[in-house]
Amino acid sequence: MFSYPTVRTSFIFVAIALVGLLFSDIAITSSNPWQDLANFFLGVVTPNFFSSEGLMTALLRTVAFAFVGVAVGSASGFLLALVYRFLPVRIFCNFIRAIHELFWALIFLQFFGFHPLTGVLAIAIPYAGIFAKVYSEILDEADPGPRNLLPSGTGVISAFLFARIPDCWHQIRTYTAYRLECGLRSSAILGFVGLPTLGFYLEASFSQGLYSDAGAMLILFYVLIATIPIWVRPKLLPIYVLSAPFFLGEGLPIVWGNVARFFTQDIVPAPLRNGEGLAGLVPWLNDLMVNAALPGIWNTVILTQIALVATGMLALLAFPLVSNHFGGPVRRTFGHVFLVIARSTPEYVLAYILLQLWGPSMLPAVVALALHNGGIIGHLIGRQTNGIRLRPDAPKGFNRYTWELTPRIYRSFLAFLFYRWEIIMRETAILGILGIYTLGFYVDSAIQNIHFDRALVLILITALLNIGIDTLGRYIRRKLALQTMPTC
Amino acid sequence: MSAFEVSGLTASFGGERVLGPLSLRVDKGDKVALVGRSGAGKSTLIRLLYQEVGRDASLVPQDLGLVNALPVFHNVFMGQLDRHSTWYNGWTLIRPFAADRSVVSHLLGELGMAEKLWTPTAALSGGQRQRVAIARAIYRQSDLLLADEPVSALDGPRAHQVMALLRDRFATSVVAMHDVELALAYCTRIIGIQDGRVALDEPSDRLAASDIMSLY
């Protein structure tokens, strides 16, 4: 079995995760974790939809921020896709999408404050980078035949409109709709840094122990996402996009003095600002590296590797839940519901809830990342097994799982897993804001202490780490000849 | 008067020469049929001629080069994208102008598929797709037609009708085809290709079907 490179790679990653476990802090620290968990589930099954009028407003704001952010991101991403073949554009796009929405929100909050622009840009900027990459890949795959047949004097734009766009239109639409779903999740978690979306009310309900309110919010969010095919219709889309900007709320006005100060003073490294010159920069950077960046990187990498393996194990355990090769329709329906819930809940929300219940450690983060990402991959490969036709006398049950199905889907399973590696790392870093000692924790502390110069350097380091993992993931996928479509 | 003249054409595939060296002079008014066994190099020759002559010729390639996501009308209209402004073309994508609609509709009528004007190209049969590519080539209104098996998916009477239309609409044409009877009926000059070289080049009125069969 070890002669397969895919198996060898898998075991190397499992070994890394096991070593990582030795250095991690995995524990349940709260005094009464199971009681809290039971109370929470009791809240979910007894949701209170009428506690405050804020709930509906929060839902509306969540949708509005998602629409405006994704629309702006998609339009700018499309323009970037047209020039994506130029290296500087590719580097720029890689960079802006390596920074998480919440980090962008934290940056904009410092100078735009609680203005709607903060939330819109926090979604639009990283999404533009992702859209640019995927749109350009889709456009590159358009059939070149019709283009070569056009009359010689055809204008560039006419040729593009007739011979390229129609061929890709379906894929572009599918991907954009899919991103809208991701946008709703991003929009919801922006509430955790204070924007008026679902996350804000979820945090408020939780901190007061109002589990039924929190349960209502989660249920509404699942319904919102599960019914996207019903309420997002091509004909209605222009109406949504045009009206969404009017539902973002007033927020607080932008103080332009803050904007100027942020760029001319706040983010200038302290030694330079205080006139210590370049000589002061070395100890400043040294202190930053030793006390924040290195511990942050160390914890982020460890947590990412453990979460990656946990995600893989959960996905492999979960895919039979939705596969036609196992169980009856009742079991599969429950499997679908479980996986829809797992993948619709943003990692950040899962981690927040588990952290409230189990107390601070890496455990809630690992479980949250594994549930969300394992739910997505389990759903995708489970669906894939439905296309496999087994011989009539194929073994049943556990043997079918181990001998027939798992070997056949293992390659695409690994492809999805390595594709999500970078996404898991990006999320791991951000979970630091909740109090786990990953890079996000140090960014958040720097911002709390009004050290924006330090925060910005740490965000840059996080972005570089993500780009590095992305490159490594792509290298491994190429080495193992794994192919996949983008997921978010 | 010469429509075009090429010399020393060669093509290799995987290091092996599949065509040429080959020289060819086609006069204005020539209706050339390229005949020969499959794999003899007819398609390669058509492609090379298109590269030599440039995009002023109308081309019907074997794979047709249709945009599957667009309706028949727009695929035909693409033959004249160079004659209008970008705005005109862009608006046509959303809402075609009446004048263009009637011209394209008339042309499709001549090809026996007027009712398919707004059908997505992806939903058409093989023979219908072939006629859309032919309609686009005719709509292009150039003097020279280069076509690679343009009627291979059409049944007998329809193939005759389309070949007659192509003969009347293009001053000069070079058409690769495997149907010897059609070639003799609608072309004035027969060029036989064998192993990548010209093995036969005669006016069609001096040939009988049996003369051509020796190439196969």
What are the main properties of this structure?
heterodimer, A: 488 residues, mainly alpha, MetI-like fold, 2 domains, globular, B: 216 residues, alpha/beta, Rossmann fold, 6-stranded mixed β-sheet, two-stranded antiparallel ribbon, 8 helices, 25% strand, ATP hydrolysis activity (chain B), Phosphonate ABC transporter ATP-binding protein (chain B)
How many helices of chain B does DSSP assign? 8
Helix fraction of chain B, binned, reads 25-40%
Please indicate the percent range of residues of chain A in DSSP E strands (runs of 2 or more).
under 5%
Unreliable runs of chain B = none
Gap from first CA to last CA of chain B = 32 Å
Strand elements of chain B, count: 8
Order of helices and strands of chain A: HHHHHHHHHHHHHHHHHHHHH
The domain tally of chain A reads 2
Q: What sort of overall outline of chain A do the alpha carbons produce when their principal axes are compared?
A: globular
CATH architecture of the largest domain in chain A: Orthogonal Bundle
The named CATH superfamily of the largest domain in chain B: P-loop containing nucleotide triphosphate hydrolases
Number of helices of chain A: 21
GO molecular function, one term (chain B): ATP hydrolysis activity
Protein name (chain B): Phosphonate ABC transporter ATP-binding protein
Pfam families (chain B): ABC_tran
Keywords (chain B): ATP-binding, Nucleotide-binding
